[in-house]
Amino acid sequence: MQKQIHTVAVCPNPAKDIGLSVTHDAIAVLAGCGAKPMLPQSMREALGTKLPTAAVFVPDHALFDDCDCAVVLGGDGSVIKAASACAERKIPILGINLGRVGYLAEVEPEELFLLSRLCRGEYRIERRMMLSVSVLRDGHEIHRMPHALNEAVISNGAISRMVELDVTCDGQAVTQFHADGVIAATPTGSTAYSMSAGGPIIDPALDCFCLTPVCAHSLTARPMLLSSDCTLDIKNICRREDNTYLTVDGAQNFKLILGDVVRIRKASAETQMIRFHANSFFSVLNRKMQ
Known about the structure:
Layout: E1 7-11, H1 21-32, E2 36-40, H2 44-47, E3 56-58, E4 69-74, H3 76-88, E5 93-97, H4 116-120, E6 124-137, E7 140-144, E8 151-155, E9 163-169, E10 172-179, E11 181-185, H5 193-196, E12 208-214, E13 224-227, E14 232-236, E15 244-248, E16 252-256, E17 261-275, H6 280-289
Parallel strand pairs: 1-2, 1-4, 2-3, 4-5
Antiparallel strand pairs: 6-7, 6-17, 8-11, 8-15, 9-10, 9-14, 11-12, 12-13, 14-17, 15-16
C-alpha cells in the first residue's frame, strides 16, 4: 500500500484529447472517489463549466505546488514535459495514454476506472533515474539545463553536419566521436531517440548512461554503457562548425561554442511513475515491437 491520494494535478492535452472527453471522464472518476482534481487556469474555457464541484482551477505555474500526484493525459512527450517539475517536488506521475503505444503511460482511456485506486493507495511507485546536465566554459559552469528523463543530445542543430566531440569519464579519456551527433540517454530514454540511432534497449530498473553516436563517421564507433556513478564530460572540439547545440528531452536548447564542456551526472531527483500493472515496461515493449 502507498500513500492515499487526495489532491491530483490534472494535465490535459487538447491536441491529443479532441474535445477533452477523456479528461472530463478522468476528472469525474477522481472526484467520484474523493480526490480533488486541480486544473490549469489556461484550460478553464476549453473544459467548460460541466465539472464536478470538487474540481478547482489554479494558475498554471502553481499546478504542481500543492498536490499528491499528477495525472498526465497524452503520449510519452506529455509525461516527459511534466517530469522535471514533478521530480523536483517529489510528485509521482500517472500517464494516461492518448498517443501511440507509449512506454511511460500506465492507463489506457478504457481503463480510467483504475484511477479510483489512487484514493485507496492501491498502486506502486517505479523510480526512473534522470540526468543532471550543465555546460562549462573555461572550467566554470555557465548554464544548467532542466533535469532530463530521456536524454541529452549534442548535434549540429537543424543542419545535418558532422560534430567532433571528446568524451571523458571521471577525467579519464573514453573516446572521440566524429558524427552527426551523440545521445547521452537514460535507461528510460533508451527506447526513444537512442534506439532509433542503433542504441540498445535497457531495462529502466538499471542505473547507467548510454552513449549513442548518430551516423558516426567511423566503423568502430559503437554505443557505450557507462556507470551512472561517473561524471561524464563531452567537450566540443569541432573547429569547422559553429552551430553545435545541446538539447535536453527534445525541448530545451543551448548553443555551444568551441571548448564548451557538457557535464552529465545522475540527478539527485528522480521521476516517480505510478504503476497499477505488473511488468508494464516489458508488456509495452512486446506490443511495440510487434
